[in-house]
Amino acid sequence: MGRHPCRTLLRPRAAGAGRARTPPAPLATDDAAVRDVRVTLQASGRTLTVSTGDSLLEALEAQGLRPAHGCRMGICNSCACAKLDGVSQDLHSGEQNADPVSALRLCVSRARGDITLDL
Asked: Where would I find the 2Fe-2S ferredoxin-type domain in this sequence (predicted)?
């Protein structure tokens, strides 16, 4: 390994340091599974119908709303809000969250059924 074994081992990892990272591509949506669901916005008292094929941020914007957001990639957390009820799915990992009260990022989450948000 030579004089500096740590440098030799770490060199391949260090080669990528400082480069911008691109988040993984969103999960593909099975068109047969896309349907309309109800999104209840608890704080504003509104109920909307949105498609399960869109991120919650895109769906809310399509309804004329302007929720806080930033990067649209799930990195900055500007769009984070509380999910009070329902099932959401992370568009990057595919993980579903049915916990009754949890945080979600609107830009990288979609509703899997009727859902209530603290907006």
From this structure: 35-119
